[in-house]
Amino acid sequence: MFQGLPKMNFGNQPTFSAKDTENVEEWLRITEKNLRLNRVDGQLVVEVASSYLRDKAERAYLQASHRLPNMNWEQFKETMIKSFRRRDQIEVNMTKFRGLSQTGDLKEYIDEFNSCLINLKEELPEAFIIEFFRNGLKPIIRAGVMASEPKTLEDAIEKATLLYYSGKETSAQRFDINRVENKSKQSIKCHYCHKLGHKIKECRKKFYDEKNRKETEMKHLKRGQEFSNKKTVTQYNKSRKPDNISSVEVEEVETSNIGTVDLDPEVHMRRTRNDLEVIKGEALLGINEIPTQVIFDTGAKRSVISERIARNYGIKSSNIKIKAVVADKETFSTYITERTRVIFKGHI
């Protein structure tokens, strides 16, 4: 069938039988790489790739080829993924990704890490990716990477490579690095899970809590469920809502847990710009439903709005005083206001 083709180096090409232990996406990734390296003609890629299918996978391909006699590579991939991607594969990939660790050469660990990252099929914050990579390194390398405070995965890989292959680490240097690591961990505390060793924007618990919350809200929205809160006094005008906001509700005072504090908006915005914990949006406030630009601190126990906005738009405050701690560590006595809830559509 393949007479006349140049000799191809497929020595590391695995077969695929659709067993429970096999990952169809990983097999497709390796196969596509080998096809590209061997410069296989576009009209032959499906024939060459399908020659490595076995058992159930081969039968599924033959059945699909009757429906698509001129199947191209994209159709081939779609068929294989649709037929053999495990429903729990995302969870399996995430578990493997989080538990990955360096047991041998650094290059092997980097290759396996990148492979897991590709298979994950999920957008993770850069800080999370760096943390997963760093935590899987051997202790002496991990400490040096942590001390360098990399901003990207490429920075972390470069630092780890320099440390691993330099061969210049002395016992004294190892002690210094370990001391830096211990000091760094002791000085950093997450204000979400209250554990030491990472910041709130790197908190995995917060990331998954937010993800689960958003997925739950999306399921409710898709089912056409509407909010049944009897205390609602304002409903968002659908004709004026931005694309990323589903609805805004204001509840009565006794259910509130949101405080107001008078902050200089310029200072506050400068400190929070490009912060992963802050979402910018628009809400309708007051009885006149005036569109207002607001920010929501997703890492705080209670969100903060200015007293000026509360006065201008008629958001009532109760007689119950609370204390709110802001970025400069000063404490302000404030009053509870009506609770303002903003429901977002999709992922922010």
From TrEMBL:
Recorded superkingdom: Eukaryota
Matches recorded under InterPro entries: Peptidase_aspartic_dom_sf, Retrotrans_gag_dom, RTL1-rel, Znf_CCHC_sf
Pfam entry (one): Retrotrans_gag
Alphabetical list of Gene3D superfamilies matching this protein: Acid Proteases (2.40.70.10)
GO molecular function: nucleic acid binding; zinc ion binding
Domain Retrotransposon gag: 48-139
Protein name: Retrotransposon Ty3-gypsy subclass
Protein source organism: Brachionus plicatilis (Marine rotifer)
